[in-house]
Input
Amino acid sequence: MMKKSVQEKIESLQKRLELYYKAEEKILSGQSYTIGSRSLTRADLGRVQDMIDGLEAKISCLKSRGTEKRRVVRVTPVD
Output
């Protein structure tokens, strides 16, 4: 299996993030409802929001990787 490039990972995570945004919107519009004898309860809002936060963090991390300057410090021990 080939390794995904950073850009492919970002695109994949963004697609998942969009799905979680849609799920969150549906949950916010109504957690559960009943039609006749049938009942539907949507996913847990807290878990969906946690996944959204996690995906946003991963995307941010991947986007910033290699673009931030690293600071190098040299230490010389003195007796």
